[in-house]
C-alpha cells in the first residue's frame, strides 16, 4: 500500500509537474522556450560582464589602459633614471676618457718654490689688513671635503650634512674659517690623496692663514669648548695625533692619523708635501707603493698606497729630515677613534664637562672605517650609524645649551626645552655662550 | 511533505521566488563589489586598500618573526644600501622635567619683552670684544638656514642640501658672515615653514652682537659671489625682503614679497613684528582657518593652510601704518631670484656680464621655489629641478674655483679643469674677481656703533 501510495505520489507529482510544463508547452511552447533561452542568455551576459568588472577592480586586467596609472609609472621610471644619472660617475662632456698614466715623468704637485717664507712675509707686511693673527690667535683654516657625486647610498649624504653642520658650529664658536672641497683638483691624486693638492693650493692663495687644519668628513667635533693649544706648537710645523712608540718602535701603520692634522703655512710644509706626494698618483705607482708600504709597516693590509701609511713611511725613513718639526700629539684627542668613546657619552655627561678634549670628553670622535658614503664599511651599519647619531647629538647638545634646549636622548632627533623663556635672556647669554669663555685675549694683536 | 503542507503550486511559487531572490541578492553583491573596485565606497574601502592591509598584516607578522629569528644578522650587516635609518632613530616621549607650554593659552613666541633695545645696548657696551659692526658700514650678520634632522625622502635630496650649504659657506667666508645651520624643531606647534619664527626670535635674543639676521631657505643658492649687500641703504630700516610695494600694498598679491631670503635687524621692532606675524602659524585649526582667510583676502593665492609668506603680505597690507616705514621691499637686486626666469640664461650672463651686479644681469640668489628636492614630490618636473640646481651650483662654484685657478668643465659637469697655470710666484698672480682678499673682508679695529 505504501508502495502504491508512493508510486501514486510519484505519478501524481509527475502528473503535477508535467501538467504545468505540459500546460505551458501546450499553450505556447515555442514562445516560452525562446523566452527562457533569452532570459538565460541575459543572465549569462550580465554575470559575465560583472565578473570582468570585478576582475578589473581587483587584479587590474587592463582591457582599456588607465591613464593615471600609466603617467605615474612613467614618472617613477623617469625619476629613477635621472637619479641614476646624477649618481653615476659619468659626465656630460667626458672628452678625455683616455687617461694615460704618466709613469716616466716624476709626479709633482707644481713648480718648485724655495722662498715661500720670504714671499709670505713680504705679502703680510704689504697687507696689514689681512694679518695672520687675529685677536691674539693665529688664523686657522679648516679644510674638509667629500666626493663631488652623491654617495652610493642616501644615508651617506645625510651624515655628510650632519658632519658639516657640526664643523660649522665648532668653527663659528672659535672663529675658524671653513673650506669645503667638492672638486678633484688633480685627477691623478683622487680619493684620500686629494687633500694634498688642495692644501698646497690653499697655502698659496691664503698667505694670511697660519695653520691649515685638514679634517675628514667622517670626523665629528664632540668637545665644543676645547680650543687648540697652539702655543705648544710654536716650534713645530706639523701636528698629528699619534704615539711615538707605535711609530718608531713598532712601525705600525696606524701610529698616526691623517684624518685630523695641522699644517703650518711655510716652506717646510711645501717641501713635506712634495716628498709625500710621489706615492699618490693613481695607477701602477700607487699600487706598487702599496706593496712597499705593506711590506714595511706593521699590521697593514694589502691595498693601494694611502696617504697615512705613506706619511708614516716617510717619517720613518727620513726621520732626521722631518721629525724635529713634527709634533705627535696624544694629550688630547685631535683624532679620537670612535669605538672606545661612543658608548661612554652618558658617563661623560654625568662625571665630566666640556673643555677637556681628552678621554674624559673627547675633542674629536673619528669614525674610521665606517665609510657611510660608500656601500660597505668595515663595521656593522647599525653600530656605525647609531654611533654617529649619538656623537652628533652629544655635540649638538653643547650648542643648544645656549638656547635652552637639548636632545631628548642621544638617538633622538627631537629636542626638549630645559630652560624657561625669560624677559632678560642676556643673563643666560653671559653664562652659557661658549665664545665668552674661551681663552681669547681681549686685545687684537698683530703678528 | 512540504507539498502536502503548502500545495504543489504554492511550493513552486515559493521556490521560484527563492530563486529570484537568490539571483537578485547575488547581483546586488556583485554590484557593490564592482563599485568598490572602481569608485571606492568611502569607509568601506577599496580592494587596493584591502590588498595593502593584507600585505601589511602579513608583513608585520613576517617582520616580527624575522626580528626574532635574525636579530644577529640585522646588526651585523655591513651593507648601507639595504639599511633603514628609522630603526636607529629613537623618538623618545616627553619626560617629566620637560617644560611645555600651556595648550589652552593663546599662542605666543615667548614672554613679551619691551626693552630689548636698552638691554642690548647695555650688553654691547659691556662687551667691546663683540661689536655689532665689524667695520664702518659693515654690520655683523648671521646667516640662518636649516633642514630636517631626518634623512630626505628623496634619495638625492641630502646631496643637494650638502651642495647648498657648501655654496652658502663659500659666500659667507668671502663676506665675513657667520652661519647657523639649524636642524632642530624649536616649537612643535610651529612646524613646517613657520619653524623659522621661534628660531629667529631665539637667535636674536641669544646673539645680541648680531646686527642683522639673514634667513635663507635651504633651496636658495648664491650665484653672485662678488656682490656685497648695500648695508648703508638699510640704515633706517629693520626688515628687508625682496618684493614690490605695489604688489603688496595695492594688489595684495600673495607673491608680492618673498620670505625665503630676508634680513631682519636685531631690535625691539623686530621682536614686535615677529609677535604680530606668529598668530597665524600654530598647527591645526588656527592655521587652516587662517589659510582660508588669506586665500580670500590675497590675490591669486591657492587654497592651502596659512604660510608665513602670505601672512606677512596680509600683515603689511592691513597694518601698513604700523610697520610699513621700517620695511624695505628691495627689487634693485635679487635678494631672492625666482629660478624659473634665471637658470636658462646663465651662459648668456657669462658672455655679456660679470659677477658683482646682483641683479637680473647676474643674480645674487637663485631660489628654487617649488622644487622641494628633499621631498618626494615638487611642483615642477624632477629632471628640470635637479639639473637646473646643478647648473646654478656650478655657476656659483665657478666664481670660487677661479680664485684657485680652476673652473667646471661646463655648467652641467662635476669635473673641474685648470684655467691658470701654477706659478713659482703665486702671490703675484691675482684672481680676476679679487675675491681672495676683498675689501669688504679686510680687518679694521673693532668699532661698536648703535
UniProtKB/TrEMBL annotation, chain B:
GO biological process: xyloglucan biosynthetic process
Any matching Pfam family: Glyco_transf_34
GO cellular component, one term: trans-Golgi network
Major localization class: Golgi
Membrane topology qualifier: Single-pass type II membrane protein
Subcellular location per the Swiss-Prot or TrEMBL entry: Golgi apparatus membrane
InterPro entries: Glyco_trans_34 (IPR008630), Nucleotide-diphossugar_trans (IPR029044)
Catalytic activity: Transfers an alpha-D-xylosyl residue from UDP-D-xylose to a glucose residue in xyloglucan, forming an alpha-(1->6)-D-xylosyl-D-glucose linkage
Gene Ontology molecular functions: hexosyltransferase activity; UDP-xylosyltransferase activity; xyloglucan 6-xylosyltransferase activity
EC number(s) given by UniProt: 2.4.2.39
Keywords recorded for this protein, A-Z: Glycoprotein, Glycosyltransferase, Golgi apparatus, Membrane, Signal-anchor, Transferase, Transmembrane, Transmembrane helix
PANTHER family: XYLOGLUCAN 6-XYLOSYLTRANSFERASE 2, XYLOGLUCAN 6-XYLOSYLTRANSFERASE 5-RELATED-RELATED
Family the UniProt entry places it in: Belongs to the glycosyltransferase 34 family.
Protein name per its UniProtKB record: xyloglucan 6-xylosyltransferase
Organism: Arachis hypogaea (Peanut)
Amino acid at each position: 500500500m505504501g508502495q502504491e501510495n508512493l508510486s501514486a505520489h510519484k505519478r501524481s507529482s509527475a502528473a503535477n509537474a508535467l501538467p504545468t510544463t505540459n500546460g505551458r508547452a501546450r499553450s505556447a511552447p515555442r514562445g516560452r522556450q525562446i523566452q527562457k533561452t533569452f532570459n538565460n542568455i541575459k543572465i549569462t551576459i550580465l554575470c559575465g560582464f560583472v565578473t570582468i568588472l570585478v576582475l578589473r577592480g581587483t587584479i587590474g586586467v587592463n582591457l582599456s589602459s588607465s591613464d593615471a596609472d600609466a603617467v605615474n609609472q612613467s614618472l617613477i621610471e623617469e625619476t629613477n633614471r635621472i637619479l641614476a644619472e646624477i649618481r653615476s660617475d659619468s659626465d656630460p662632456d667626458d672628452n678625455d676618457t683616455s687617461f694615460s698614466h704618466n709613469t716616466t715623468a716624476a709626479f709633482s704637485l707644481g713648480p718648485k718654490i724655495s722662498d715661500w717664507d720670504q714671499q709670505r712675509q713680504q705679502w703680510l707686511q704689504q697687507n696689514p689688513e689681512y694679518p695672520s693673527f687675529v685677536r691674539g690667535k693665529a688664523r686657522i683654516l679648516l679644510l674638509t671635503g667629500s666626493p663631488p657625486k652623491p654617495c652610493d647610498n642616501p644615508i651617506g649624504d645625510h651624515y655628510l650634512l650632519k658632519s658639516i653642520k657640526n664643523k660649522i658650529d665648532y668653527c663659528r664658536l672659535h672663529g675658524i674659517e671653513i673650506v669645503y672641497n667638492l672638486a678633484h683638483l688633480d685627477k691623478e691624486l683622487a680619493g684620500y690623496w686629494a687633500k694634498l693638492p688642495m692644501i698646497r693650493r690653499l697655502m698659496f692663495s691664503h698667505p694670511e692663514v697660519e695653520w691649515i687644519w685638514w679634517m675628514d668628513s667622517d670626523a665629528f667635533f664632540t668637545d665644543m669648548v676645547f680650543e687648540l693649544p697652539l702655543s705648544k706648537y710654536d716650534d713645530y710645523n706639523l701636528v698629528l695625533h699619534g704615539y711615538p712608540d707605535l711609530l718608531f718602535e713598532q712601525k705600525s701603520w696606524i701610529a698616526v692619523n691623517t684624518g685630523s692634522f695641522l699644517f703650518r703655512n711655510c716652506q717646510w710644509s711645501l717641501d713635506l708635501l712634495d716628498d709625500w706626494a710621489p706615492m699618490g698618483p693613481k695607477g701602477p705607482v700607487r699600487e706598487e707603493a702599496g706593496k712597499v708600504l705593506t711590506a714595511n709597516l706593521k699590521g697593514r693590509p694589502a691595498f693601494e698606497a694611502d696617504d697615512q701609511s705613506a706619511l708614516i713611511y716617510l717619517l720613518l725613513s727620513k726621520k732626521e729630515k722631518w721629525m724635529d718639526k713634527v709634533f705627535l700629539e696624544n694629550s688630547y684627542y685631535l683624532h679620537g677613534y670612535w669605538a672606545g668613546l661612543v658608548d661612554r657619552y652618558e658617563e661623560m655627561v654625568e662625571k665630566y664637562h666640556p673643555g677637556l678634549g681628552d678621554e674624559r670628553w673627547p675633542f674629536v670622535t673619528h669614525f674610521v672605517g665606517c665609510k657611510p658614503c660608500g656601500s660597505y664599511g668595515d663595521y656593522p651599519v647599525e653600530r656605525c650609524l647609531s654611533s654617529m647619531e649619538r656623537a652628533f647629538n652629544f655635540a649638538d647638545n653643547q650648542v643648544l645649551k645656549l638656547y635652552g634646549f637639548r636632545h631628548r636622548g642621544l638617538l633622538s632627533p627631537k629636542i626638549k626645552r630645559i630652560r624657561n623663556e625669560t624677559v632678560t635672556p642676556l643673563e643666560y647669554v653671559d653664562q652659557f655662550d661658549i665664545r665668552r669663555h674661551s681663552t681669547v685675549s681681549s686685545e687684537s694683536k698683530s703678528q | 511533505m512540504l507539498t502536502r503542507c503548502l500545495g504543489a503550486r504554492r511550493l513552486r511559487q515559493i521556490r521560484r521566488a527563492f530563486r529570484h531572490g537568490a539571483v537578485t541578492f547575488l547581483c546586488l553583491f556583485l554590484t557593490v563589489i564592482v563599485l568598490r573596485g572602481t569608485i571606492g565606497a568611502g569607509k568601506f574601502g577599496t580592494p587596493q586598500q584591502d590588498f595593502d592591509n593584507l600585505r601589511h598584516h602579513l608583513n608585520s607578522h613576517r617582520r616580527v618573526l624575522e626580528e626574532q629569528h635574525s636579530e644577529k644578522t640585522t646588526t651585523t650587516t655591513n651593507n648601507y644600501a639595504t639599511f633603514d635609518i628609522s630603526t636607529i632613530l629613537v623618538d623618545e616621549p616627553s619626560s617629566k622635567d620637560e617644560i611645555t607650554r600651556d595648550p589652552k593659552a593663546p599662542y605666543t613666541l615667548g614672554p613679551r619683552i619691551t626693552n630689548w633695545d636698552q638691554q642690548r645696548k647695555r650688553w654691547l657696551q659691556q662687551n667691546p670684544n663683540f661689536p655689532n659692526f665689524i667695520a664702518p658700514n659693515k654690520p655683523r650678520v648671521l646667516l640662518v638656514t636649516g633642514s630636517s634632522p631626518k634623512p630626505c625622502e628623496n634619495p638625492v635630496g641630502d646631496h643637494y642640501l650638502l651642495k647648498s650649504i657648501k655654496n652658502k659657506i663659500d659666500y659667507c667666508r668671502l663676506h665675513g658672515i657667520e652661519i647657523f645651520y639649524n636642524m632642530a624643531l624649536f616649537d612643535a606647534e610651529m612646524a613646517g615653514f613657520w619653524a623659522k619664527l621661534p628660531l629667529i626670535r631665539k637667535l636674536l635674543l641669544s646673539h645680541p652682537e648680531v646686527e642683522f639676521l639673514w634667513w635663507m631657505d635651504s633651496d636658495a643658492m648664491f650665484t653672485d659671489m662678488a656682490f656685497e649687500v648695500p648695508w648703508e641703504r638699510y640704515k633706517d630700516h629693520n626688515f628687508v625682503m625682496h618684493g614690490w610695494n605695489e604688489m603688496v600694498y595695492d594688489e595684495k598679491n600673495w607673491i608680492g614679497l618673498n620670505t625665503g631670503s630676508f634680513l631682519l635687524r636685531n631690535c625691539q621692532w623686530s621682536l614686535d613684528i615677529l609677535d604680530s606675524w606668529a598668530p597665524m602659524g600654530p598647527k591645526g585649526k588656527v592655521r587652516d582657518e587662517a589659510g582660508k582667510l588669506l586665500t580670500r583676502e590675497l590675490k591669486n593665492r591657492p587654497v592651502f593652510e596659512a604660510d608665513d609668506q602670505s601672512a606677512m603680505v596680509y600683515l603689511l597690507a592691513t597694518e601698513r601704518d604700523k610697520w610699513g616705514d621700517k620695511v624695505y621691499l628691495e627689487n634693485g637686486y635679487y635678494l631672492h631670484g625666482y629660478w624659473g626666469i634665471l637658470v636658462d640664461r646663465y651662459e648668456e650672463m657669462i658672455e655679456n656680464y660679470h659677477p658683482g651686479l646682483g641683479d637680473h644681469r647676474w643674480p645674487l640668489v637663485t631660489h628654487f621655489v617649488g622644487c622641494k628636492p628633499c621631498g618626494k614630490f615638487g611642483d615642477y618636473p624632477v629632471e628640470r629641478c635637479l639639473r637646473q640646481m646643478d647648473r646654478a651650483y656650478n655657476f656659483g662654484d665657478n666664481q670660487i674655483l677661479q680664485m684657485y685657478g680652476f673652473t667646471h668643465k661646463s655648467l652641467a659637469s662635476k669635473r673641474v679643469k685648470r684655467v691658470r697655470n701654477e706659478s713659482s710666484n703665486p702671490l703675484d698672480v691675482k684672481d680676476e674677481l679679487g675675491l681672495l682678499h676683498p675689501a669688504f673682508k679686510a680687518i679694521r679695529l673693532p668699532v661698536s656703533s648703535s
